[in-house]
């Protein structure tokens, strides 16, 4: 029997997950998307996906139900969902800052829930998703959710819900930090005389290559840094300036600031 996956919300992340699953061989008929915004719904339907404007009894055989709406409308979405949601279904929420206690209450006491924090590289199959499951989720439910996000990249399961805020701070927000650094490198390249297009290519290439190298070698990142740094050389000069400017400390503190904000959002 094929599993049916319902997405409540058909935005970018839902589309990324669906695309990843389709590339793995899943069928369009395996999905149902609930999307109230007509232009988005029409675009999804044009791809062959079954779409509805609101939740109805057709979700009654769903094995997975992915809450992919914006956090501010999630409560209303859950109110519509819980009257049709089968008890055996596993609910997956990718809404930042919405705790399991609230989700359980809004879903009428539904117990099988997983909080997920994916990031935007999921759109190109290189995402990292943090996951935390309620005790009601057994091995079968966890494996289903793990397979869902395996379609868009790597996964890390946390031992506590609080660690989802930490995942948010490191990888959920992490692409923003990387783009900030890349933009600065791009600007530096432009100031050295490169065109805008070539400056972008150089900055992106440096990050792409370094990331692939780090992924292929398990040595500490500091050792990889040492391997490209010759005493008195160009990299040495650049890194010495960054240390004097406190760049590393600023980045580390930025991660802590992001976690603090995630906790504030979770607390309402």
From TrEMBL:
Belongs to the pyrroline-5-carboxylate reductase family. GO terms for molecular function: pyrroline-5-carboxylate reductase activity. One of its GO terms (biological process) is L-proline biosynthetic process. Coiled coil: none annotated. It is found in: Cytoplasm. Catalyzes the reduction of 1-pyrroline-5-carboxylate (PCA) to L-proline. It catalyses: L-proline + NAD(+) = (S)-1-pyrroline-5-carboxylate + NADH + 2 H(+); L-proline + NADP(+) = (S)-1-pyrroline-5-carboxylate + NADPH + 2 H(+). The gene is proC_2. Its EC number is 1.5.1.2. Keywords: Amino-acid biosynthesis, Cytoplasm, NADP, Oxidoreductase, Proline biosynthesis. NADP(+) binds at residues 68-71. Residues 161-265 form the Pyrroline-5-carboxylate reductase dimerisation domain. This is Pyrroline-5-carboxylate reductase. InterPro entries: 6-PGluconate_DH-like_C_sf (IPR008927), NAD(P)-bd_dom_sf (IPR036291), P5C_Rdtase_cat_N (IPR028939), P5CR_dimer (IPR029036), Pyrroline-COOH_reductase (IPR000304). PANTHER family: PYRROLINE-5-CARBOXYLATE REDUCTASE (PTHR11645), PYRROLINE-5-CARBOXYLATE REDUCTASE 3 (PTHR11645:SF0). GO terms for cellular component: cytoplasm. It comes from Achromobacter pestifer. Residues 4-97 form the Pyrroline-5-carboxylate reductase catalytic N-terminal domain. Pathway: Amino-acid biosynthesis; L-proline biosynthesis; L-proline from L-glutamate 5-semialdehyde: step 1/1.
């Amino acid at each position: 029997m094929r599993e049916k996956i319902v997405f409540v919300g058909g935005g970018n992340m839902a589309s990324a997950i669906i695309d990843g699953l389709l590339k793995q061989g899943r069928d369009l008929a395996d999905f149902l998307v609930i999307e109230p915004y007509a232009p988005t719904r029409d675009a999804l339907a044009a791809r062959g996906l079954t779409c509805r404007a609101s939740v109805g009894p057709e979700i009654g055989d769903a094995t997975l139900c992915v809450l992919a709406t914006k956090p501010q409308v999630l409560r209303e979405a859950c109110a519509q969902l819980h009257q049709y949601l089968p008890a055996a279904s596993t609910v997956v929420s990718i809404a930042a800052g919405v705790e399991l206690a609230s989700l359980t209450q809004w879903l009428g006491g539904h117990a099988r829930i997983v909080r997920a924090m994916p990031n935007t590289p999921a759109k190109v199959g290189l995402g990292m998703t943090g996951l935390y499951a309620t005790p009601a989720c057994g091995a079968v439910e966890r494996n289903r959710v793990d397979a869902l996000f395996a379609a868009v990249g790597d996964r890390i399961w946390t031992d506590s819900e609080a660690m989802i805020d930490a995942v948010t701070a490191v990888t959920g927000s992490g692409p923003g930090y990387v783009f900030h650094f890349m933009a600065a490198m791009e600007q530096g390249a432009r100031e050295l005389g490169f065109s805008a297009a070539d400056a972008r290519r150089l900055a992106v290439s440096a990050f792409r290559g370094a990331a692939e190298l780090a992924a292929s070698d398990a040595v500490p990142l500091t050792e990889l840094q040492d391997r490209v740094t010759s005493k008195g050389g160009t990299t040495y000069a650049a890194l010495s300036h960054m240390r004097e400017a406190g760049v590393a400390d600023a980045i580390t503190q930025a991660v802590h600031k992001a976690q603090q904000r995630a906790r504030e959002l979770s607390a309402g």
